């Protein structure tokens, strides 16, 4: 990889002839999200860090059917150009798969630490060891980052690439239709009563006023934020970026911490019950934007559906690689199934 990457960078005038590339980490083949390759460019005593992102290989049973690297790179550049949100610069995008076997983009590498997903940060790790005051700073920083993304003043014609292709008369309708497309891909010839009942529940309880259509980061989880001294220094992972109401990101943020908190309680841990509480997030977001979040019950249900879909794919991957048996009831592949059932009953 290093000779190919060095030649590619030199062809673009991005690498001095005397500079050397040092590879720090390569693709894991994990298959869930985009793969990341870390490397440094070293010239004399100067060292510049970068992260290269590319899709996972098909044989790794990837989480999504689509990995639009250009969409991610364009969205990151756009939000960085129009806001003060801490987003890494993306100097290069390569659409031709010839070099590395897939399209890729290169972004600057930011020094920071993200809360862990595995095991969840509510069970172990540095977040538990931080002070309540620092966790409040973390919470405020993330909410302010969302506010910055949502309040980006971007001309409408620069946002059309973020519209989903599925039919719908609003951005939210198209967003949900896009998740239906994802569900059809996931299920193949299988049938998930719980998922289909949840789609019906969402249709029956649709928000009366969807509000503003803004840039939605799409994956507003703590694991996608790098922190330094309790302040966000990088907002990462834009695979799910789209247009939609502000509450899409707020619902996902609140839901995901609550999801991890339920895991903590299930295994007898206290977790972090005072972190990213719904009322606190709503209040902080209102203070930052002047927008009072609405219909959050609906958006929390939609977040639960989205997480259920990805959990099915993760479970099917485990079945595919003989890491678990396929259950008699396919709904048992849904992580946190009881919670989703409670929402729609």
Topology:
Layout: H1 2-11, E1 20-25, E2 35-43, E3 46-54, H2 69-82, E4 92-94, E5 104-108, H3 126-129, H4 132-150, H5 171-187, H6 193-204, E6 214-216, E7 225-228, E8 231-235, E9 242-244, H7 247-266, H8 278-289, H9 296-320, H10 337-344
Antiparallel strand pairs: 1-2, 2-3, 3-5, 4-5, 6-9, 7-8
Overall pLDDT confidence: 93
* SS-based class: alpha+beta
* Total domain units: 2
CATH class of the largest domain: Alpha Beta
Shape summary: globular
Distance between the termini: 53 Å
% residues in beta strands: 5-15%
* CATH homology superfamily name of the largest domain: Aminoglycoside phosphotransferase (APH), C-terminal lobe
Order of helices and strands: HEEEHEEHHHHEEEEHHHH
Q: Specify the biggest β-sheet.
A: 5 strands, antiparallel
Counted by DSSP, the helix tally is 10
User: Which blocks of ≥5 consecutive residues have pLDDT under 50?
Assistant: none
* Major sheet strand order: 1-2-3-5-4
Helix content: 40-55%
Alpha-carbon Rg, integer: 21 Å
Q: Based on the structure given, which CATH architecture of the largest domain is correct?
A: Alpha-Beta Complex
The total beta strand count reads: 9
Query: Might you state the CATH topology name of the largest domain?
Result: Aminoglycoside 3'-phosphotransferase, Chain: A, domain 2
């Amino acid at each position: 990889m290093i000779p190919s990457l060095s030649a590619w960078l030199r062809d673009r005038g991005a690498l001095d002839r005397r500079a050397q590339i040092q590879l720090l980490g390569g693709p894991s083949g994990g298959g869930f999200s985009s793969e990341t390759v870390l490397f440094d460019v070293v010239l004399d005593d100067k060292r510049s860090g970068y992260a290269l992102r590319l899709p996972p290989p098909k044989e790794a049973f990837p989480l999504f059917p689509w990995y639009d690297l250009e969409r991610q790179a364009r969205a990151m550049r756009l939000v960085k150009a129009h806001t003060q949100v801490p987003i890494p610069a993306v100097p290069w995008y390569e659409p031709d798969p010839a070099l590395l076997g897939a399209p890729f983009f290169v972004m600057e590498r930011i020094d920071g630490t993200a809360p862990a997903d595995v095991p969840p940060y509510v069970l172990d790790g540095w977040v538990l060891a931080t002070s309540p005051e620092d966790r409040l700073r973390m919470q405020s920083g993330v909410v302010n980052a969302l506010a910055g993304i949502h309040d980006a003043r971007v001309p409408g014609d620069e946002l059309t690439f973020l519209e989903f292709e599925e039919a719908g008369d609003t951005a939210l309708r198209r967003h949900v239709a896009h998740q239906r497309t994802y569900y059809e891909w996931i299920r193949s010839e299988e049938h998930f009563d719980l998922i289909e009942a949840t789609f019906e529940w969402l249709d029956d309880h649709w928000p009366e006023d969807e509000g503003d259509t803004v840039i939605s980061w799409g994956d507003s989880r703590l694991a996608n934020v790098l922190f330094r001294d309790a302040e966000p220094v990088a907002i990462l992972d834009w695979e799910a970026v789209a247009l939609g109401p502000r509450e899409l990101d707020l619902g996902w943020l609140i839901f995901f911490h609550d999801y991890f908190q339920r895991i903590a309680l299930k295994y007898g841990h206290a977790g972090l019950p005072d972190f990213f509480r719904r009322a606190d997030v709503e209040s902080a977001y209102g203070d930052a934007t002047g927008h009072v979040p609405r219909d959050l019950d609906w958006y929390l249900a939609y977040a639960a559906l989205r997480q259920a879909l990805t959990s099915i794919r993760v479970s099917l991957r485990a079945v595919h690689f003989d890491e678990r048996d396929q259950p008699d009831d396919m709904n048992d592949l849904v992580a946190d199934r009881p919670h989703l059932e409670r929402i729609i009953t």
